[in-house]
Specification:
Oligomer: single chain
Number of strands: 4
Largest sheet: 4 strands, mixed
Radius of gyration: 13 Å
Structural class: alpha+beta
Strand order of the largest sheet: 1-2-4-3
Strand content: 15-25%
Amino acid sequence: MNKRQRIKKDEEFQTVFKNGKSFANRQFVVYCYRKEKQDIFRIGLSVSKKVGNAVTRNRIKRYIRQAFLEMNGSLQNNMDYVIIARHQAAKIDFHETKKSLQHVLRIARVLKKDFK
């Protein structure tokens, strides 16, 4: 993912938290915030130290980024997404991570239904 697709600044995270809507399952909490005049989606990741050590946290973040890259064509482009990993996310592999994110994004109604 390039720099334009990442949320890095605290102000941007706070905007999504305050104005966006949250959706959750056992592994992830996803905040979605619609931004008009934006041509690509952006994601911000939050993985707490409570989830695991640095190796585990970085693996979870890699899995989430890769899942979003693979779902690129089926996501709404004018959105900001902040993904918070819960403790259960440390126990699953990439394919389960992708399925779990698809589940949450379908609940949020930002993922196309015909996407597999």
